[in-house]
Amino acid sequence: xTLDDAAxxxxxxxxxxxxxxxxxxxxCLRTGYxxxxxxxxxxxxxxxxxxxxxxxxxxxxxxxxxxxxxxLLMTGQxxxxxxxxxxxxxxxxxxxxxxxxxxxxxxTLWNTVSLRRHLIAQFEQIFTGFYQRALVLLRKRANPTxxxxxxxxxxxxxxxxxxxxxxxxxxxxxxxxxxHASADAGALVALFATYDCDMTRSDVASELVVELCRCCGxxxxxxxxxxxxxxxxxxxxxxxxxxxxxxxKNASSGASSEEVQIEYWRQVPAHLKELCAEALVGCMxxxxxxxxxxxxxxxxxxxxxxxxxxxxxxCSVRSLHSRKRLMRKAARLFNEKSKKGIECxxxxxxxxxxxxxxxxxxxxxxxxxVGLDKAAVGIYLGELGKAAxxxxxxxxxxxxxxxxxxxxxxxxxxxxxxxxxxxxxxMFLAAFRLPGEAQQIDRIIQAFADSCGRKCDxxxxxxxxxxxxxxxxxxxxxxxxxxxMLTTDLHNKNIREDRKMSLEAFIRNNTNYGQDITEPGKELxxxxxxxxxxxxxxxxxxxxxxxxxxxxxxxxxxxxxxxSTDESAPxxxxxxxxxxxxxxxxxxxxxxxxxxxxxxxxxGVVGIDEDALEATASSKAGEGNPNAMLGxxxxxxxxxxxxxxxLGVLNMGRLDIFREIFSCVCFYTGLLGEYNLDAVDRTWSFxxxxxxxxxxxxxxxxxxxxxxxxxxxxxxxVWALLFELRxxxxxxxxxxxxxxxxxPDFLREDxxxxxxxxxxxxxxxDSSDKADKSKRVSSVLGVMGRALFGGEVSYDQDxxxxxxxxxxxxxxxxxxxxxxxxxxxxxxxESEDDGADNESVEFDSPSHLGSAGARFESQLxxxxxxxxxxxxGSVPVxxxxxxxxxxxxxxxxxxxxxxxxxxxxxFSELVSESRFMDLGGVQDMIRAxxxxxxxxxxxxxTGDSTSTVAECDRLADTAEAAxxxxxxxxDELVISPASEAFAEVLICEIALKNRDRLGILWExxxxxxxxxxxxxxxxxxxxxxxxxxxxxNKQTPTSPGIEKCVTGLLRISSCAVMRENVGSEVLTTLHLxxxxxxxxxxxxxxxxxxxxxxxxxxxCRNIDGLCQLSTDGWDGLLGLAEWCATIGGQVxxxxxxxxxxxxxxDPALLAYRSLHLMLHAPELKDxxxxxxxxxxxxVIIAGERARFPKxxxxxxxxxxxxxxxxxxxxxxxxxxxxxxxxPVLDAIAEAGKLSMFTDVRxxxxxxxxxxxxxxxxxxxxxxxxxxxxxxxxxxxAGTRLAExxxxxxxxxxxxxxxxxxxxxxxxxxxxxxxxxLKRILSTNADLLGAWSTLLSVMExxxxxxxxDESTEEDGELVDSNGMTPDQLRRxxxxxxxxxxxxxxxxxxxxxxxQASPASDGDISAITWDSIEKMEFCKGNLEEWKAATQ
Length: 1429
Prior knowledge:
Distance between the termini: 152 Å
Low-confidence stretches: 52-57, 85-91, 175-183, 229-263, 293-314, 567-576, 606-628, 765-806, 832-843, 938-971, 1019-1036, 1347-1355
Strand content: under 5%
Helix content: 55-70%
Radius of gyration: 49 Å
Mean pLDDT: 76
Number of helices: 62
């Protein structure tokens, strides 16, 4: 504002003139070059009249290359001349309108492809010196300290905004009709292929993207290393300034010294950061479009030349970029020590071996674009080198002659022709920094004089130094050295003004150098020396930084153009093609990490640290969040950029990069690996970070869109996020939530409540003696459970779940206390149904908001507006309102976030949509869950799942030791018992959603998972019983995860039964939940009996599927039924403790129902194995154990049904009768012999008798009838008869029952034998064995020992009918004797018995000898013998 009105008017007029000229220039460019690609060639070749002025002898293309581009660049750079004190460009002020026209003209030049290919060197300087320089200055703006600096920042931001808008257009426009879009794949790909893959060019594309990333907040040091770690939010300083510069926070990681020197930098303004992000998104969209691998054309002059010169037919963009990467490494080593850099050049094959001085000179001349330090170049050029010494052979590049040749070759690479000595000196010294030693400077300037002194305008045209070029080098050397001294003298602030060299002194010192150097008449003119003095006084010779670190000068521009002309192709250029897809891959390989760094910065706190907690504490204190809107902006930008990058890289086919990016995005949620805080702090940190919430949404959307590509590790991170959200109570339940199972619960409501109480009381802790340590740390939940729910209750006493002390090691994160996988835990002021119809909850993003980030931002704004609208004008909450007066929108922040996440990303779709994924993706999902559970080892003794049981014993001595151990393990994944159960539910749900592919999934992943989880050796399922009889007293502790693992296996089994060739494979695995025959297998806790019973019933309901089972499948199913019956049989008690019978969900009753259904299903009549006897037998025993005879009788009926199947399956092998039918009879006989209930015994004996004489009995082979009678029926009858007649008191108390039972047993011995006697005799079956066994029983019953059993006291025992035990025994003998007589008569009539035995060992001899031993029948022996005759 120091200009007066006249100056302002003049400036405005000048700006108007500039605007008009620039618009006319653009019009000419679009008209002349926008439609014909051959116009440049025609104009350059057309015949023009002889020029009348020097400036007329130039083509239009030359004017554009030399003048227009330089004017645009220098005028554009003038906007920050008064902002940057280090710049030496001419200061000047231009209006924003002029700057806008400059940017538009640059865009026109770039979009005109026919012209762009001739401006490769020019655009290199434009992109680095204008656009990239603007980005560098933008991120290095200091915080304003007064109004002047504040206004200066505003002006600068307005100027940079115009530049960024132009850059967005250049990088983002990709539509047909635009010049560059019709010829290549976008600006970024063209820049990368043209510059980043050129050995002599700067990395324009990479550096431009890196600067954009730095302006967006990405952490990238000067060496290009990306910091992908935690990006904590910095604290504001005491003066109220904002944050520290990102580089200064990472100074130890390689940040530049210049950045560290500045104490505070301001944050990039939000609107400018938005433009930078838009530029990056535009780059990605152009990069990821048209993934078809088309060939694109671009002018790659140097690439084409290098391929031609090397003769390498396979020269590609990738190989060139790889060579440039090696060159960059060599430059970095050279900066440390020149010897290392040159060795790297030779070893990498970048130069010929042996290396030549020209090779090193070219490296020093062109290596600046790959990071070669100008100071290092100057030091090497000034070194003298090592002289030859005897016995020593240093490398060739360290020899003195080699250094001398390098210096000469280096100077020869400059184009000094046709320009003044001063301009040549400026150009020369701009390429490196002079060393500090005078002798080194002398050698360098001497070499410069030898080269420039012969070619410069003063020597070649004006002949000021000498008439012979050979003698011109000495005057040129002295004059050049004098110019350098003059620069130091005039521009050194430490020299006083009165002591600085004057013009006259300079002229006097350089007019004549003496007769040995200055020829007569060749004294330097005064005007010539005056012009040099004035030029140096006005502008010192400086070694300016290149590209974004400095400003362009006229001399530097000339050097660029001259070098380009010398090293480039002819004017018509060389058109070469490159594989578009290959270049895009290279771009992604080099730039994905900076972009990911930006995503992390947009999302703010991606980890939980002290800074975040302090910010959280201030929010709790009511200070609010002044940067809340910036957080919403970061959430939107980060989400859109992350999703675009992930899906774009995926479509490109780079799975390796895609998975690395996905892993970073998962880490940026802040939910992984941060377990050093309790649940309250972790929840509060996440709830108050919309950035972290947007990161979670981005992860879930990517997982749903590309779930079959993220791999096992990616799915592990997705599941870990879900587990952490579940632990923090941030997952919705209800009808559409993920915290539910698709099938009904295996437990009734009351049983589920009992199970929850069992877990709350710590029922899944270790029951060993080690758990009784007095120093063991007990959880709060376990203590409260025992206080509220009482002491220990045994499972086998009243049917409820047992309990042990819940002993765990307390940790910081407290995950060991989370037990219920579907726990929602609403706050006091919320419920899961509240707000379901509230307008603050229900919100559909407008359809025109295309991106996910925009919809999420709109959703957040809508929530705030609704809350603000509801609370405006309302009475503040006083805390005295009643519950019904609480407004429905006043829900807790956690509930709001929970519903926000549900609306933005339905987590249940991860499972439901898996049916549309590839098979490999589904396997990865399940395998990830299985691996995570397997690594947890055990959660029995400690909530820190990374500790084993042995480690827990060591940690149990002191709580402090346990706390320290948990801190050491905080960096590993920790899964709570509840999330462990959740993981098992997810595995089952995924399998059920993919039931069409269940067979492959089972064979590949599911089978191994359940074997690892439930198999032998798993500490959660170690054998806990030594036998089935004692199983209820020695239960294996069961965790929530094991519960869901077992129920998941049962649910999959129920589904697999309906799948052909799958059911048998799955049901075979059911043996994992019950003990094997030798009792050495795993045993799942008996407290899961109700679960297993319900699962058995659901499996058996699928009758059609059971028809397809194999033998192994049936064995698993029937074994499960046997196990249910074994652990069941718990009688319900009423309030008075009186048994009321079995509960409807008792495992034994469910086992009976299942067996009853299968045995009575006509479809299974030919399918169910005849070996089901064991299962039915277990049901009968369960009825005895439960004192519930109805169940035992029902089980006996099932045995009879099973017996009937033997007759229908003919012909049956002998093994079937011996292995299956005999056990059926044995089970019936066992019930009749051992049951404590008379009804059961009588029913069993009657059934056993009927089994021989009913219609099914006719199908029994006679030989097997004899075997059954000999080994089962007769011995059982004899044993039971002896017991019945033994105790007089029992006889008197149950006289009628004993009498009936005696009659049934006697019938059991004789009736089946006589019924099948004819068939036995016709087949020559072994009648002797069965008859001998019967006779031995008769000897016991009718012998001496059974005659005088009563005593005098016994004689007094009389039942209600007046019958004594002795009378019952006598009647029994009479009955038995009568049956024996009848049997003897039948055998005699059949010709089996003879009065006179043929031999001592035949049946007749055995019979008569046995009867003779029977005192009760001995008198009838002769009569019976006579009857046989």
